[in-house]
Amino acid sequence: MNFTKKVSLPILLSTVMYSSQLKKSDEWNLFATSRDHYNGVAMANGQLGIVTDDTPLRTKEIILNGVYEASPENGISRIVKGIEFLNLRIKINHQEITGNNISDWSQTIAMKEGISTTSFSFKDLADVNYSILANRANPYSAMAVVEIIPKKDIDISAFNYMSIPNELKNVKKNYRVLKDNEYLMPVFGAVTHTLNGKYKVAASTTFLFDGPKEQLQYINEELGFSTKLKKGIKYRFAIAGGICTSKEVSDPVNESERQPIFALQEGIDSMLDRHKKAWASIWNSGDIEIEGDLDAQQRVRFALYNLYSSVRPGSRLSIPPMGLSAQGYNGHIFWDTELWMYPVLLAMQPEMAKSCLDYRTDRLDKAKQKAYIYGYKGAMYPWESDDTGEEATPTWALTGIFEQHISSDIPIAFWNYYTVTQNRNWLKENYPVMKETADFWISRVTKNSDGSFSINNVVGADEYAQHIDDNAFTNGSAIETLRNTVKAAELLGEQINPSWKEVSEKLLIHHENGVTQNYKGYKGQPIKQADVNLLSYPLHIITDQKQIRKDLEYYSKKMDKNDGPAMGPGILSVLYARMGDPEKAYEYFLKSYIPNSRPPFGVFSESAKSNNPYFTTGAGAMLQAVIYGFGGVEITDHGIKYNKGVLPKKWKSLKIKGIGTDEKTIEIKK
């Protein structure tokens, strides 16, 4: 992706604060007691992400996966924020709860259940718990559950209000009571349009109660109730509802109303149970257990949680660099998915991985159109992709035209899905992605006078390198794409273009003084991230162990430690683990996340100096270090291979559960 410098943070202070708070946490729950330098967590279900806030009874924002509208700044598409429909205004004895009049604040992220709970005391009147979730069982549904424990007899009022982001226009709010026979169904809703009217967005809610239903009132575009509570008797209610857009359904208003009506019939506990069971199913089919290192266990689980939260099987949606936690990089789809996040899903949740590939298959025609626009053949995928599949990179960024290795990253991911699943029918159906990208590279290369081939004038995976020739990763990934396409064609009995073989055998990768060159004419300049090292993993271009080590030792010193993204150390960790050096691998494993952790829960930021969490791409690289490095997992043409694996001194054991389509469990012990 195109990377720009961000404002630096007091990193050491943040890390110390985060570490001290996590001491009170356990392997499934992250616990915070400080609101300083707060960074929220996305309670997400692959369709919508609800970002937590440190202010009681309020969410920070809601991100809608796959929904894009032009931004007002430059007209470039941007992922859309949704109506914040779970916010509450609570008064106790006519005093409103705010962020400034509470005490004993704490917040827990329950990763196993996908629930965030904020707890606090309000003066000497009550203790309050506020839990939010994006329902994993119902993709357009969410709920906030409130528990109030009175310290004395109190009067309360609770009103649900909807906050509308500035990018949503033409807001209409309404309240009506629907009736089926004698059954009454109160529904509070808001309807808006995206900035330029591309989509209609609708959200609806209702109240659920444990006991008798309260009499609801609609006042000043807020829906709520008032009641009296007795000292010491816990009182629980919920706001349940959903959000829909005209991108997914033709009538988002009525469909959004069906979400609270469904919840009204189910009740609080049933909705919670459905949600928890859906998450339990995910964890049962893909989890990582680390014994002897609680900090690593927490961080690995948190990375898995954020990755799983960002995608749904069957949705035909992919994952932006920030998952569903923010609008960073406009929520576009980059190589971040195929190279960094997808390999984890392929090993742990193949059906989630397939959704990311479906997203690319659906946009093949637009990739062919882009190739046509620039005078090439086949399919040239955009560097930044949105719902249209057209190039969505801001025009000032050269990456949009010249960072072309994306057209290899995608077909390599397709081939790897076949090798893991061995599903030949799927391969036949999706073979056009591989063929068309192979044809693009044949039209893109330049033949040299000695019969070799070059790819000239590109931006490398190391994006500090612009207008360069024969970039190592660009050429290496093109070679792998061409080789894989030949293999796929042979399997399927498809016609093989002789040029695929010729170019794959003669495309140049340069060396100097025994080191693989980042690009032709490279003179040792600082690099943004791993480029050459990617030829050893995840590619299979450089396999000689001496060469791998020499390239590792050379380029590990060239990487930008301040502004370089989190992914580089993850790759180095994989390679050192595969060479049987667990302590060096562990050193880079730590470097892949510790400098990038932000309080209070350790959410990933892109680099050591940036503050743009949650960077799901970095989580993917860190998890690859565990699975494909320490875990010894390897993807081959014949399926998943299980090598011995290694453990750093601090770890007593590593168990990876649910690998591949047969959900195999491996365990590595001292």
From TrEMBL:
<dbReference type="InterPro" id="IPR012341">
    <property type="entry name" value="6hp_glycosidase-like_sf"/>
</dbReference>
<dbReference type="InterPro" id="IPR005195">
    <property type="entry name" value="Glyco_hydro_65_M"/>
</dbReference>
<feature type="domain" description="Glycoside hydrolase family 65 N-terminal">
    <location>
        <begin position="42"/>
        <end position="246"/>
    </location>
</feature>
<dbReference type="GO" id="GO:0016787">
    <property type="term" value="F:hydrolase activity"/>
</dbReference>
<keyword id="KW-0378">Hydrolase</keyword>
<feature type="domain" description="Glycoside hydrolase family 65 central catalytic">
    <location>
        <begin position="301"/>
        <end position="523"/>
    </location>
</feature>
<dbReference type="Pfam" id="PF03636">
    <property type="entry name" value="Glyco_hydro_65N"/>
</dbReference>
<dbReference type="InterPro" id="IPR008928">
    <property type="entry name" value="6-hairpin_glycosidase_sf"/>
</dbReference>
<dbReference type="InterPro" id="IPR005196">
    <property type="entry name" value="Glyco_hydro_65_N"/>
</dbReference>
<dbReference type="InterPro" id="IPR037018">
    <property type="entry name" value="GH65_N"/>
</dbReference>
<protein>
    <submittedName>
        <fullName>Glycosyl hydrolase family 65</fullName>
    </submittedName>
</protein>
<dbReference type="Pfam" id="PF03632">
    <property type="entry name" value="Glyco_hydro_65m"/>
</dbReference>
